[in-house]
Fold each of these.
Amino acid sequence: MRIVVKVGTSTLAHKTGRMNIRHVESLVKTLSDLKNAGHEIILVSSGAIGMGVGKLLLPRRPEDVPTKQAAAAVGQCELMYTYDKLFSDYNHTVAQILLTAADVQDEKRRTHFENTIFRLLELGALPIINENDTVATEELVIGDNDTLGAIVAVAAKADLLILLTDIDGLYTADPRVDPGAKHIPRVERLTPEILTLGGGKGSGLGTGGMATKLTAAQKAMEAGLDMIICNGEDPAVLYRIMENEPVGTYFVGRREQA
Ligand code: GLU
């Protein structure tokens, strides 16, 4: 299977912005093992800005564009350095791809991107993708990595998109504030009711939240691609997905009518 795994800042970093070493190590170990089992893995990793905040000892996630872009420039290095080091321990080679909206909107550039991804997979490398936050400007920004994950998964003709986050999938309300919130295990169609469950923003350091995950679901499902939102607290959840266990919320991609 060709799988795109998107991991959010809430999984990769502590609230301080410093790396969550336990999560990152177990993510890398699990992805390496899935690759050893014959799956093709593409990782869409957030965390550049979050980790830049930690490394530069900034008191919080910056609001202004230059500081955000500076933090991303620092944090992206830290991210790739760590991935390269940890994946090397399991004999896997990583490749960094940084994209902006212009790269996916322009057909020629998108084709170059697709060709690179396919060649990297043929070469056995593990592409790690993020938005190029340092140059992405407001007018031309993808804006969040859930959407980027869906764009990448569709372009790479993946079989499955998995969004790892800090919550067990989609609920009828925000379970952090409403104890009566019910978990939704499966979504066959994105009805207006489901789309209103998007709610507000996610964690303090990341960009997403449920709204961007539902946008990603929409893109994926329209392209006939299945998507799962699940909790990345224990990345071993990926093994359970591979064994077809019900985990998180499963969004069923549109199938061609017979
Ligand atoms: N590209 C951003 C980063 O690496 C993350 C965007 C997001 O959180 O969705 O920090």
Amino acid sequence: MRILVIGSGAREHALLRGLSQDPATTDLHVAPGNAGLGALATIHPDIKADDADSVTALARELNVDLVVIGPEIPLVAGVADALREAGIAVFGPGKEAARIEGSKAFAKDVMASAGVLTAHAEAIQPGATDEAIEAALDRFGPTWVVKDDGLAAGKGVVVTPDRAAAREHVDAVLAAGNPVLFESFLDGPEVSLFCLVDGETVVPLLPAQDHKRVFNNDEGPNTGGMGAYTPLPWLPEDGVQRIVDEVCVPVAREMARRGCAYSGLLYAGIAWGEKGPAVVEFNCRFGDPETQAVLALLKTPLAGLLNSVATGTLAQQPELEWIDGYALTVVLASHNYPDTPRTGDVIRNADADNILHAGTALNDRGELVSAGGRVLNVIGVGETLEAARDQAYATIADIELDGSHYRTDIALPAVEGRISIPLPRG
Ligand code: GLY
């Protein structure tokens, strides 16, 4: 199978690694890619991921059998539709279905029709009066959940007990010309559950947990994700099945009923509170960085699996197989991430097999340098979460990148038994 992966981060590195291990894969390409992917795939750096014409032309020129789209921006822009119209199999939803991530109002409407538990939300439009904004702040919070109602790579969300900080974010989002979404705060531990969805067929992967705040103990601003681990030792035995039955299957059915059947990866971001699993958000693609941990444990050949979704045959796939044990990933971020990350710093000691590249490039001297906020992901796999942590942290400690930082507590609350599901209210 000749495969083209669209994207440039550590998620795409993990996808390429998984695809390369499937004996069915004969040829791998990536566009636009990053400096760490050359050993796995031919890199096409001049292609813009959201330029449907260029992506389709490249897929045709390479005569690929399958295109796998990693990030949300090309999916929301309709790149998968252009490929399908050209007769090319593609893993990823079309533009209409990708609104489950691209439009929070659409996602709320689907959930209301499907009877799925989620936060109450209200939108405030640019140009709203000061009184309207203050009244919304009165109705919500504390804690305030204030979202940029557009694609913001996880960084458009502020969750804060501080009214002034909530107001500051409201003003910044409105000033950028985007609507603001206020949401009621959902309590309880978070679960990222990725499901392969082919119409009404829903196949869950292992559940993971992301660490979104930049500093240890969940302090500091939200980021795209600073680390993740899988599976979740604190999740009830029927936890995944409940999320599938109560959230993912009803949503897949509702999307099919509306004429925008889902095909690709549906990411359910869940907060498990005393009323059970409630949806914080949906994404229309593999999560980053959770995918890097989840795919590290997948034994089922990845190319065949993604191709079965793309060709409408997921229901015929055998049950997924997994490595026993745990995996985690720790993100190495550049100086000043997530505010204004510094790029161009030389990276040393980043050759270990358990390192994935997120934001890297080569400079004029051919040295590996940072090229984004999240620079590298280090993976650890072990029979226990402690063993997985030991492996990842031993590797990351050796990497040299001036000004870089990483969290040292990825998966630690789970290891120390500090996470529990709230009991249902009687
Ligand atoms: N890890 C959060 C996301 O992928 O959106």
Amino acid sequence: MKVLESEFAQRFIRMCDDGYHRGWHERNGGNLSYRMIQEEVEQVKDDLSFTGDWHEIGTEVPSLKDEYFLVKCTGAYMMNMARKPEECMGIIRLDHEGKKYQIVWGMHNGMKPTSELPSHLMNLEVVKARTNGKYRVVYHCHPVNVIALTFVLPLTDKAFTHELWEMATECPIVFPAGIGVVPWMVPGGKEIAVATSKLMKTYDVAIWAHHGIFVTGPDFDTTWGLIDTVEKSAEILVKVRSMTDKKRQTITDEDFKKLEEPFHVKFNPEFLK
Ligand code: 2HA
Ligand code: ZN
């Protein structure tokens, strides 16, 4: 089967397109990566080429060795993903040590993997271990309301988690473990990758101050649903704070606790008073 005929590639392209239309990908902003299932690799194997050079990842991800990833290219615009997928994305495989990658499909015209490849792979490694292999998607985008809040809320996991949980009953149910926050850092390198992957040991969501957000999940729908929920709650909070600096009423910590049993979730107790 051709890569572009596969369900996973089509779904990847749609998520990029959806994110662009939500205004989360100005210019070449944001990126997406997907750790392929072994059967998917077999499905498209005839369409792959194994003659390319090996390149340093810039970090080490030994537990992802020999695996295949569909990733967005650096410099590519999400806006163009559906029109020029073979240029805007590509499949890489890792070497036996998890230190190098080889491009095996796509990335035409000299394109290379996302500048955030170290963050994506280190996050994918951490969440693979945390979920016994279940999580496969890492998505990074620049949503307006989440970024706006990083100028206003204290840059702590507790402040972001509690404020965003309060904004809609669904929020604590969708991200019960909470949200991690990375202070402002230079993007694209190992340092921010290490800081983010440390948070991904606990959370499915990490906010980068004055930059954007990373989310992770088992599949495209769940990962999309997560960022959609977080950004919506951020928008509500921006609106509430624009109207008043004091909420008249809210969902209380006692209310949160009442959700645990019926919705089969356990909230991170550190974020309740
Ligand atoms: O892909 O968003 O953080 C461009 C970025 C880097
Ligand atoms: Zn970014």
Amino acid sequence: MFSRAVVRSPSANFAEGLTSRRLGAPVYAQALKQHEAYCAALEQSGLELVRLEVDERYPDSTFVEDVAVITARGAILTRPGAPSRTGEVAGVREALAQFYSHLSSIHDPGTIDGGDVCEVGNHFFIGISERTNQTGAQQLAELLASLDYTSSFVDIRAVKGILHLKSGLANLGDDRLVVIEELSNRAEFRGYELIVVSKEEEYAANCVCVNERILVAAGYPELDKRLGELNYQTIALEMTEFQKMDGGLSCLSLRF
Ligand code: GLY
């Protein structure tokens, strides 16, 4: 169960952030509205919010998840793979220091984006991506091992259309994963029950299990229906403006 989430509203220059999408520029007022609805959904799911100050120096800084990996046994600050984002760590460090007496860190030349890290029980899948390199993944694996967690690597560099591992993978608990088609045959996920998201609904794979509810992107009826059939209670949230900037639901918070 989670009790808190770190969040940061998008800055006025959010549209200057990184993106590989060709969906047009995000509309700032709309992004703010969508972010507030997201925050309300976290609160509705029982979380107390830790709101970081908006930071225009870092237009991607609303995507707080990339900057830390938080586990029940300790927190690790990452070293984001995009140079324009490395400065985001200081603010998140300050916020997490209120809750964790010791914070580990990923060091140069290692890079990790939190979006590449998917916790499944006592195991962590670590995506090797354009943002997370082998050295960073190895450092994280060692830090996780010191907290008594296992981990394994999933190379997603050849998978088209996803920035991070969690762009195509979500953990629903009870050994059940949501995955995009392209990841569904990977040996790494054998032994799990897979809910495979169709190509048309690929963006919806980045859903987030928060206590009793699952936050899902609005506009993806197949996955929503499937989750309903499995008796999950979903909250559908408009994410269009964040999608334009290569962001998903999980990216917008650090939950612990
Ligand atoms: N815009 C999110 C990222 O590229 O890091």
